[in-house]
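#struct-help
A.M.: can someone run this one for me? Single chain, 199 residues.
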Amino acid sequence: MIPGRVVPERVIPERGAPRRSDRTRAAILAAARELFAADGYAKATIRAIAAQAGIDPSMVMRYYGSKENLLAAAADFGFELPDLARIPQDRWADGLIRHLLEMCERNDTLIALLRVAATQPAAAERARWIIANQIEPALASIEPDPALAARRAGLLAAQMMGLALTRYVLEVPPVVAMTPDDLVAWMSPVLRHYLAGRP
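D.P.: on it. Structure tokens below:
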């Protein structure tokens, strides 16, 4: 060691501290979710998402490859559905509707996904994945027939995502004006049929 030279102390990252790549990915996803929801898929450019995240646009492409891939990743969220097997049957429908409304109010990722799923294959695939991997298992806990559980899950998703679409994407005025209690009163009989009834 050269006399008088100050050797900088080696900094050892704290265990469990997020890596730079993880922080970059998180920043990209946060920016993408915000802009997809605010501007729609077509107007939310890679350049705008990169600027929102505070990085170079090439980094977005490096991590995700395309805007469709980015949307699919940004829409990777959990429905966090309650375990129906642990809830009294007469509360299934009401609970699911209130859960959906609360989730849409606090998490705009679902809204962004619904905006583009009709025209973008990656978004449609992510929506199908959510139904198959998050909604179907919830029905499987109360329906022993796998085929019937899948059918019920699809119809349940049609009602729940349809409600989210009309209230938060299309913003149909009468639906927007309804309170959560109003929506529960109107929607519960339909959901109860898919949850507990038979054709």
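A.M.: thanks! The chain has two domains: 20-74, 84-196.
D.P.: also worth noting: The mean pLDDT is 83.
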